[in-house]
Amino acid sequence: MDSQYDFAVIGGGLVGAACAYGLQRQGLKVLVLDEGDVARRASRGNFALVWVQSKGLGMPAYARWTRQSSDLYPDFAERVGEEGGFDIAYRRPGGYHLCLSQDELDRRAENIRRLHNQADAVPYRIDVLDGDEIRRRLPEVGPEVAGGTYCALDGDVNSLKLLRSLHSAFVRLGGTYRAEALVERIEPGADGFGLVTGKGRFGAARILLAAGLDNPRLGAMVGMDLPLRPLRGQVIVTEKTEPFLDMPLSTVRQTDEGGVMIGDSQEEASDYDVMRPGIHAVMADRAIRMFPRLAGLNVVRTWSALRVMSPDGFPIYEQSVSHPGAFAAACHSGVTLAAAHADVLAPALAGGRLGDAFQDFGIRRFHVQAA
């Protein structure tokens, strides 16, 4: 089989788009096959955080990987904005997680202690603050806030502009994008892979599965068992208001356009077109207790989206043993990890081997037999 492309990326969400952009910058001939906006992807329904704080409990490698991406982000954001033509509104002022009771704060502090006491040192600092210190730093915070945590490495971005700019930069650099091209079948061959879609058949020497919740179906075609499950989250967006919050929180953030996003829910669910008013009510109540001024704002949008979760919550990066040249990437932190996917993972893929740096993220961790 004559391969038409050096690399085909299956999936055009944030993970696929960042990897495709990075592969194109390696000088390869790259194709993106994307189901399009009908896909159940989190790239248009996320909270847009570039978040380091508290990540890595149970897997220190993930803490290091997240920190690495955060450190790459300033240059990545500037480059993607220039090459893609969109200011993605990236900022890194630090970020807070607020707690509404002493019990919440104590449990949060214990998790931070456990995170830092892991065998491998976590490469960042998280400060645990009482309510008075939080209110000194964030004067708008309400009296019910018992305290919180702060990490100087946290930030956020306009994730819709990030996705659009990655797609635009990829095409401007010479990449090929095909929408409404769900891959129905992967046909491995002696010199690459045939990809059968409703838009026709395409060939590529190597492939990356970056199709989120569709990765298990695709992985089975190339010998990879990719255990992923959906986790539904709901988001509230208020009308635009004057600037009052110049840094992101884990559950409340004011966007670059002035609206306030509120997101604080996780449900084991497979449908993304269902929203539960009771969950919205709890989210809104918690947000108002954190920032009383929010009680006077109108809600203009709500939505739900499905996160892509592995059994342990950490990313999966894998290469097929039975079908060399087939790779997979899946995670629920497509915004945070976009810089690392473009600038670290993509060069490794271009080299044809993930290597030791990614061994902790392989699927073997889910198939280790008990002694």
UniProtKB/TrEMBL annotation:
InterPro entries: FAD-dep_OxRdtase, FAD/NAD-bd_sf. The keyword Cell membrane does not apply. Keywords: Oxidoreductase. GO terms for molecular function: oxidoreductase activity. Residues 6-346 form the FAD dependent oxidoreductase domain. It comes from the Bacteria. One of its GO terms (cellular component) is cytoplasm. The keyword Oxidoreductase applies. This is Opine oxidase subunit B.
